[in-house]
Amino acid sequence: xxxxxxxxIETYYGAIQALRGISxxxxxxxxxxxxxxxxxxxxxxxxxxxxLAKVKKGSIIYKEKDITNKPPHETTLLGLSHVPEGRRIxxxxxxxxxxxxxxxxxxxxxxIQERMEMVFNYFPKLKERLNQKGGTMxxxxxxxxxxxxxxxxxxxxxxxxxxxxxxxxxxxxxxxxIILQLNSMGITVLLIEQNAYQALSIAHRGYVIQNGxxxxxxxxxxxxxxxxxxxxxxx
Length: 235
Ligand SMILES: Nc1ncnc2c1ncn2[C@@H]1O[C@H](COP(=O)(O)OP(=O)(O)OP(=O)(O)O)[C@@H](O)[C@H]1O
Ligand SMILES: [Mg+2]
What we know:
Elements: E1 4-13, E2 16-26, E3 31-35, H1 42-50, E4 55-62, E5 65-66, H2 72-78, E6 80-83, H3 95-102, H4 109-122, H5 124-128, H6 139-151, E7 157-161, H7 169-184, E8 188-192, H8 196-202, E9 205-210, E10 213-219, H9 220-225, H10 227-233
Parallel strand pairs: 3-8, 3-9, 6-7, 7-8
Antiparallel strand pairs: 1-2, 1-4, 4-5, 9-10
Helix pairs in contact: 3-6
Bound molecules: adenosine-5'-triphosphate and magnesium ion.
């Protein structure tokens, strides 16, 4: 039984159909990656899951419950955390305040403190910068803060939308390292990446999205060897 399943999802922005029947499965404990060109529908797929985009047809099943079109605050509470494209941290708030915002529904100072310590284990730098304004952090630090904020809800499934975007190769390495660590701690990961090679290298499985449809799927290692993928995404 997959932890998350999309069945024939169709999502529109007004009259524009962004998803044309997306079906995919994520098993508990997996890293699954979505790859595809600009505008293919990757971000819309994550937004459809977290409730940021309205699904017109199809259904989304999470832990055997239908969560189709549940609003973002509900999906977050259920254990699905979404780190959106472009990070979207609160630039005027400090690192600490950003993390606390991430735990908006968590009651009890002790729990919040515990969660923060867990975040600092992954991102020691955030601890050193607790009182720095989010907007003055470097790109890599902001990405770490965005992931840290998502971890404050103690998610079961972490959805990451292009976490390596615009970052220097060494920082990208660190981000991928953290994703592997989080996964080894039991967090299921749904990852969108423009860096298809790196994403497929760490993913158990991958799906290729083209024009709002899944055109190919398979094991990460098999997809890396696939000629079509090599030509389109690994060139
Ligand atoms: N808010 C919006 N209003 C109208 N159309 C949108 C909106 N957001 C996305 N779209 C359209 O939906 C389609 C899918 O977009 P989406 O953002 O999911 O692509 P993507 O695969 O994440 O691309 P990228 O790699 O550039 O981030 C595109 O044609 C895009 O123009
Ligand atoms: Mg996108």
